[in-house]
Automatic annotation (TrEMBL), chains A, B, C, D:
The keyword Nucleotidyltransferase does not apply. Belongs to the phosphofructokinase type A (PFKA) family. ATP-dependent PFK group I subfamily. Prokaryotic clade 'B1' sub-subfamily. Pathway: Carbohydrate degradation; glycolysis; D-glyceraldehyde 3-phosphate and glycerone phosphate from D-glucose: step 3/4. ATP binds at residues 11, 72-73, 102-105. Catalyzes the phosphorylation of D-fructose 6-phosphate to fructose 1,6-bisphosphate by ATP, the first committing step of glycolysis. The active site is at 128 (proton acceptor). The lineage of its organism: Bacteria, Pseudomonadati, Deferribacterota, Deferribacteres, Deferribacterales. Keywords: Allosteric enzyme, ATP-binding, Cytoplasm, Glycolysis, Kinase, Magnesium, Metal-binding, Nucleotide-binding, Transferase. This is ATP-dependent 6-phosphofructokinase. SUPFAM superfamilies: Phosphofructokinase. It comes from Mucispirillum schaedleri ASF457. GO terms for cellular component: 6-phosphofructokinase complex. Its cofactor is Mg(2+). Its EC number is 2.7.1.11. Substrate binds at residues 126-128, 163, 170-172, 223, 244, 250-253.
Length: 319, 319, 319, 319
């Protein structure tokens, strides 16, 4: 393999730049020429492809987002779009891809592999930690620290006023961010998609706390479980709590990468290139324990990343 | 004066703990006994009053919010409520007050001074910077750094996607936070209550940027000028921008105090006690240049804190 | 088991407070009474022991250091000291211990178990990541983020001046912090105890960079490999580099715990109490992959925590 | 004036990039062409001069250090060096300069003005806050927040061990950073060049605290007053304190600019260009209260920036 393409796709996540940097430098070390594909499959179709030199990725490891940008592409879902994309790869002589993104992005890579024989290795980039086959996806650690810092600050004002706050965090259909943030901030309750919400129980708990002169309450809601506004209303109906609502929003996605995400991105980026070198394709780099393993796309798509029950229980035990 | 009461009232703001600490220790240095009044005028009415020792305020200078807590009190707006409050002050022998809070809080202190002869010195605590008589209120610096950090993060994801973001910041009827954050983050446009919004002009500007391949746009909206959701909608009607909305919310209020707010709180807290010692009353500590001055309540309420026109112009010039 | 003692010992590390909080609350949930032992074995000998209530550990999860304080105790190394300590535990009816600290601290627990039958479960608290049996010790993640932030800042000024910086980081006899920080910050070279330093090679590399107009160099030195001042001098002897030296010092130990260390502390604290409940003793909680396992003290002391060779290689490949 | 040069010189300080960005954009707004001069007077002599476009300064406002780099130039102190520098300015048709740096940098600009008629406006960039004519120099606010965060962290570990720490901060011959950091962190004592150190008094104070069971002590030393190591030794000689020493070092200079330094840099950069436009020369932009004023170089060099006595007293009163 002489030329490889590197791209980020879907939602951006912190650490992607570390993965890009590592893939570029590993490729150069192996004597390959790395190319950047701008804006994911959209750029692949439009031919936004350019060589990446060693110095092009200097000093990017500390930056949030992705220097290769990202976009969603409807055209790539069509046969015609895919053919355009493949034609562009051929034009540049690109034989293999490093695809950094969520499951939608890896699905695209799977299609290119199966239908057109384009080799690829995926890197799980997603703050939601909803991808099967890796203990943790690129960006989760940074997102959780951003969420934690935000909730610590809200906690300051909540404590000063003795108020109830309902805070909505990201995570799509997955409660990972909510639960982990809940443990880390000492939240009083968490509502997640994986568990039927017990509003009455939460209201009861808050009343007990109030009887104990603890009028500050923090309830974290995972977006996949519903809206913080709705739960805030229901909570008020269930009791007398005048809850304030905060939707943390896009700050969760845009954090400056932590040590963990910089190292994870570096390891996965280098491993992906090494995998391509060794003829691997249609696999994703997964962090399993302390090791980077290759997980077949098949397996990635066949299962869901489950939330550990012990972790859910831990939050309740410590609150 | 032998005994003074210290309280925080209205919305909490970072730096209040530094002011409390300084007031307590300055009072002790002058041989006075400082008392904490919990939850502002509510606690004054309810008699939640207790002595504060030197060590009670150890290590609080770095904490957000206010250890004395704060609340709004409807009862204090009544003659009856005020009499209860005054009775409690008399019960504890409290002859003077340090009142830390916004203009509502200082209004209460003015009433106590005029109707009941309770001496007081106010400290302007408000992240909105809307109080006349001080260049900057306690908490503004911290709030602006929190807002800036948040917008930097949103900028990371906005740049990765080439997207338009509309970000709503606090400030009540005042555009100070929005304008300053706009300059500090290199925002593309700002909408504030002080200036008639020009949506068409902003849409035009964003179109020009898009023609220049700059599809990332950051528009900051001061809450006093309207809702980010409304302006986002209008922007979409005026062009083709698919704007994302973020309402920063209560994180803006709960930040961990910066160096500036810790020092400002310390200076104002000590100055307030010194003022009481020297027989001053019905004045607010104001930062004017590098000096702490005493500004009569009369004057504080008679004018509005105006946003410097040069600053508004600067943002447009640099964007 | 009705009463347990909780203590921190040796060097403090971020996340200890999360472990204390979890141990206290888990114990209360199991119907046990948790006691805090102040300043480790020193307090055990002096009888600084007191009950810890649920609310005593409120809001401590976000704080650095340890609320139970820590100290080194020479007296505990003597038979007489140990007997005093055991007598105090008996006085309070404490049947089991949660010991949070480094290998010295766990050695003490081992002695108490073997000689006096005092049951204990250890929690590895050490920023150096030098404890065998756990992928990562409590405090490592926070320390690495603090180190990374510091080096990012030094990088700003180094880049502005085109200067060489030699930065000394902690880690005792272990190069983990240095290597991981090196990858995360894109450092140009790292010197660690595990690998013979190649000053000539580093000087050569820096000269090549200079020929390439890259006059900024970052060299990270693990304290166990020698002093940054010495290596700076040697570097100057080996070439013409006017190196600036920074010894990061105790900031590395005092960080405010990250999400990871708060959750790890919570999990380990709860697991330790559960282990005591189930009759376990003389084992340490270890994070292995995503699981908390119990590792016998024997095993912990029998081996060294090795630095992964791939990780060392990765740094060189990406620099 | 059609063409202006912009440069940073001497030690770098946070906010310089904001000033560069503002100067570039203000110049373009006025119809002038801005040029960057690399590495200060060194680059002026070597002819490292290039046009700066609007987009060249995009996204730099949030970055530490200076994109124009900085260096010290011995050659510029010679008549010959100055002539080379002036010849290069003439070559590019540069008629005026914006010089961002400390007093050494402004001295250079004064020479160019007086001997060669090169117009210039200075911007005080220095973390030490030792420049007369401005309440605060560019970079001071960021440096103080970095120092404060570091001392907060050291405080965590100091409190856990009940230890004495001596912490050395920057500031050259000026105690500003030490005193302000002392107030902001609640330090127990500060040693600065402006006041004769009273080691015996400090040792006495620490002994009193120890008698009060407060064994944690924080002593901040300004570098201009001597070395932290020396004071640590003297303290041990004066009592029994086993003091730990930390020299904060270059992190203090390399911080990511705060809101305040970004706005101050923006204001000063724009004002400097406006001044040149209006025919001003040999003046420095100074922040006086809320206003940017022009202060003649003469005046800047004629006096010293004095530390406010009330501030020194405040620290002692509150400790």
């Amino acid at each position: 393999m002489k030329k490889i393409g590197i791209m980020t796709s879907g939602g951006d996540s912190p650490g992607m730049n570390g993965a890009i940097r590592a893939a570029v430098r590993a490729a150069i070390n192996y004597g390959m020429t790395p190319y950047g594909i701008l804006s994911g499959y959209k750029g692949m179709i439009e031919g936004s492809i350019f060589e990446l030199k060693h110095s092009d990725v200097s000093n990017i490891i500390s930056r949030g987002g992705t220097i290769l940008q990202t976009a969603r592409s409807l055209e790539f879902k069509t046969e015609e779009g895919q053919k355009k994309a493949v034609a562009n790869l051929e034009k540049y002589g690109i034989e293999g891809l490093v695809v950094i993104g969520g499951d939608g992005s890896l699905s695209g890579a799977k299609v290119l592999d199966e239908k057109f024989g384009i080799k690829s290795i995926g890197i799980p980039g997603s703050i939601d930690n909803d991808i099967y086959g890796t203990d943790v996806s690129l960006g989760v650690d940074t997102a959780l620290n951003v969420i934690m810092d935000s909730i610590d600050m809200i906690n300051n004002t909540a404590s000063s006023h003795g108020r109830t706050f309902v805070i909505e965090v990201m995570g799509r259909h997955c409660g990972y961010l909510a639960v982990m943030a809940g443990i880390a901030t000492g939240a009083d309750a968490v509502i997640i998609p994986e568990v039927e919400p017990d509003l009455a129980g939460i209201a009861e708990k808050f009343k007990k706390r109030a009887a104990d002169c603890k009028t500050r309450n923090i309830l974290i809601v995972a977006e996949g479980a519903g809206s913080a506004y709705d739960f805030g209303k229901k909570l008020q109906e269930a009791g007398t709590f005048d809850a304030r609502i905060t939707v943390l929003g896009h700050v969760q996605r845009g954090g400056f990468p932590t040590y963990f995400d910089r190292v994870l991105g570096s390891r996965m980026g280098a491993a992906a290139v090494e995998g391509l070198m060794n003829g691997k394709t249609a696999v994703m780099t997964g962090l399993q324990g302390n090791q980077i393993k290759f997980v077949p796309y098949e397996e990635v798509f066949s299962k869901r990343h489950e939330l550990n029950n012990n972790i859910i229980k831990l939050l309740d035990d410590l609150a």
